[in-house]
Amino acid sequence: MSHSHDHQHDHDHHHDAPPAPGTVDWRLNGVRVIKGDQLDTNTAQTPGMNRAAAINKARVGAQKIWAGTVHIHANAKTGAHHHGALESVIYVVRGKARMRWGEKLEFVAEAEAGDFIFVPPYVPHQEINASTEETLECVLVRSDNEAVVVNLDIEPVEKPEEVLWVDPIHKAP
């Protein structure tokens, strides 16, 4: 089965060919370093986890990806959600993750530091910190430049727990 690309696309193709020499100010439009203490927490959230954006359209002009971190506190379970048409990759930096997915979150797999997790578009899922003692720390990359989170009303197999966001700015009650 062949697929024709003769139709007009709704997205920008300016990255498909390199720019002509001397037409781009690479100092202003080149590599960007986002320091770990400068991540943006003003991004879509799901109960039980804290997401922070490093790379997105607003911060660096990213056209095709979103990247950031997610921290899930010890023994915490997030609410069920999906990320629309986006593909997601989760890299486990520290801790042990348990992923549940499916219409009733009936499927389960675990990942630990050094493992990658792939979440296809529209898959209902729940992230669980399988450790009762340490925070689960992950790097997250998605296939578009903005965060899409659709929180779902699914009765989870493992009930979400309210996890208070406590850090130097947000004090414990």
Please, could you describe this protein's structure?
With 173 residues, the chain is mainly β. The chain has one domain (26-151): Jelly Rolls, CATH 2.60.120. It has helices at residues 26-29, 57-60, and strands spanning 50-55, 66-72, 81-82, 88-94, 96-101, 107-112, 116-119, 125-129, 136-142, 150-151. A 5-stranded antiparallel β-sheet has the order 1-2-9-4-7. Strands 6-5-8 form a 3-stranded antiparallel β-sheet, with no helix packed on it. It is elongated and about 55 Å long.
What brief labels describe this structure?
2 helices; disordered N terminus; mainly beta; Jelly Rolls; 173 residues; 5% helix; three-stranded antiparallel sheet; single chain; five-stranded antiparallel sheet
Topology at a glance:
Layout: H1 26-29, E1 50-55, H2 57-60, E2 66-72, E3 81-82, E4 88-94, E5 96-101, E6 107-112, E7 116-119, E8 125-129, E9 136-142, E10 150-151
Antiparallel strand pairs: 1-2, 2-9, 3-10, 4-7, 4-9, 5-6, 5-8
Short description:
This protein is mainly β and 173 residues long. It has helices at residues 26-29, 57-60; strands spanning 50-55, 66-72, 81-82, 88-94, 96-101, 107-112, 116-119, 125-129, 136-142, 150-151.
